[in-house]
């Protein structure tokens, strides 16, 4: 039976990484933070720290020797760095790899074709290939949009400016999860490597529509003065395809036109059908708990 004790976490001070780090420590793992050479991040004293050069196989192999697992919570802009990290993990004899996914289901047949997910899909394909050729195993964690972070930064809707978009009318439901639950899912994968190996795992705190989310926010901040727009995910999707075909596509446009259909459109697998919550002890929120959670995340 595989037992995982030592975990290397790449991107341990990021939006997600910091919370994953906290949950890994709470679950009793010995964590080594991989940080870029020259990065100014500081870490808790019970965390080992290794500065790495993500462009050097030797640097990564040296950092990963003796580790049981690698968790990557690397920034969206640097996802391609995981190719060498995966190669290094296999070479260093690491048992398990969790790539920097943590969003919509890029194993979904249709969603995987969205231009903005190309790097995530390429990384996952390379991880599968490496796993087939070596002893490395993998798990991809899918959680939909971050609920707390998405409200805080105005990504799901903009509370400060009171703007909300209702793609396709805003009634399709999507899975959404807080950073803390995602951290628990990562720790849960590493506690259950056999049950979770070589597949995607799916978690959610709730499945809601954009209209339900907006209603919950309005109960907290008031319903007056909102600017509401109805958009078409089909048009957004087409716009993304056109942008991606250009010689120098605008990465911001490609990203946004990928996220909107993937989260709010119908037929993109945005409400997960099968959940792994029970395996990780993640309880879904009741309507009342969801309302209370939204109230605590909305910027005041
Ligand atoms: N579902 C959602 O709503 C949602 C929202 C946001 C993000 N995500 C996903 O979650 C994952 C983590 O995203 P995040 O927002 O937490 O990441 P982030 O905060 O932007 O960055 C995480 C860390 O990546 C490390 N890093 C390594 N190479 C880098 C480079 N070349 N440039 C910049 N940073 C680099 C940095 O750590 P060091 O300085 O220590 O090296 C940084 O702190 C990504 O896969 C992202 O797509 C999902």
What's this model, at a glance?
The protein is an alpha/beta fold.
Any overview of this molecule?
The chain is built from 12 helices and 11 strands. Strand 4, helix 3 (82-92) and strand 5 (96-98) form a beta-alpha-beta unit. Helix 1 (17-26) packs across helix 6 (179-191). The radius of gyration is 19 Å and the shape is globular. The chain has 300 residues and is of the alpha/beta class. It has 2 domains: 6-142 and 179-202, Rossmann fold (3-Layer(aba) Sandwich), CATH 3.40.50.720; 147-175 and 205-297, Alpha-Beta Complex (UDP-galactose 4-epimerase, domain 1), CATH 3.90.25. Bound molecules: NADP nicotinamide-adenine-dinucleotide phosphate (NAP).
Shape: globular
The parts where pLDDT drops under 50 for at least 5 residues are none
Q: Which percent range describes the beta-strand content?
A: 15-25%
Query: What CATH architecture label of the largest domain applies?
Result: 3-Layer(aba) Sandwich
**How many DSSP H or I helices?**
12
Overall pLDDT level: 97
What does the secondary structure layout of this molecule look like, with pairings?
Elements: E1 6-10, H1 17-26, E2 30-36, E3 48-52, H2 57-64, E4 69-72, H3 82-92, E5 96-98, H4 118-133, E6 137-142, H5 147-152, E7 163-167, E8 173-176, H6 179-191, H7 193-196, E9 199-202, E10 206-209, H8 210-221, E11 227-231, H9 233-245, H10 251-264, H11 277-280, H12 287-297
Parallel strand pairs: 1-2, 1-4, 2-3, 4-5, 5-6, 6-9, 7-11
Antiparallel strand pairs: 8-10
Helix pairs in contact: 1-6, 2-3, 3-4, 8-12, 9-10
The structure holds NADP nicotinamide-adenine-dinucleotide phosphate (NAP).
Residues 11, 13-17, 35-36, 39, 41, 54, 73-78, 81, 100, 102-103, 145-146, 150 line the site of NADP nicotinamide-adenine-dinucleotide phosphate (NAP).
């Amino acid at each position: 039976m595989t037992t995982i004790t030592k975990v290397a976490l790449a991107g341990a001070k990021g939006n997600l990484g910091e919370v994953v780090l906290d949950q890994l420590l709470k679950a009793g793992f010995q964590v080594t933070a991989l940080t870029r050479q020259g990065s100014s991040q500081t870490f808790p004293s019970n965390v080992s720290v290794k500065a790495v050069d993500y462009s050097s196989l030797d640097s990564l192999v040296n950092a990963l020797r003796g580790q049981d697992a690698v968790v990557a919570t690397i920034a969206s802009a640097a996802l391609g760095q995981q190719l060498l990290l995966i190669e290094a993990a296999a070479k260093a004899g690491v048992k398990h790899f969790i790539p920097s996914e943590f969003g919509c289901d890029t194993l979904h047949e249709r969603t995987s074709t969205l231009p903005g997910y190309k790097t995530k899909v390429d990384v996952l394909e390379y991880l599968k290939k490496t796993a087939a050729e070596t002893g490395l195993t993998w798990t991809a964690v899918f959680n939909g949009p971050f609920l707390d972070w998405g409200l805080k930064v105005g990504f799901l809707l903009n509370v400060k400016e009171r703007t909300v978009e209702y793609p396709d009318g805003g009634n399709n439901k999507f899975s959404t999860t807080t950073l803390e639950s995602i951290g628990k899912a990562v720790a849960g994968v590493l506690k259950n490597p056999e049950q979770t190996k070589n597949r995607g795992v799916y978690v959610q705190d709730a499945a809601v529509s954009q209209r339900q989310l907006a209603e919950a926010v309005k109960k907290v901040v008031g319903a007056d003065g909102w600017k509401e727009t109805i958009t078409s995910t089909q048009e957004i999707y087409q716009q993304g395809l056109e942008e991606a075909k250009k010689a120098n596509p605008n990465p911001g446009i490609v990203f946004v036109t990928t996220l909107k259909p993937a989260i709010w459109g119908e037929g993109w697998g945005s409400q997960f059908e099968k959940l792994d919550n029970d395996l990780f002890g993640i309880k879904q929120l009741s309507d009342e708990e969801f309302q209370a959670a939204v109230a605590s995340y909305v910027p005041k």
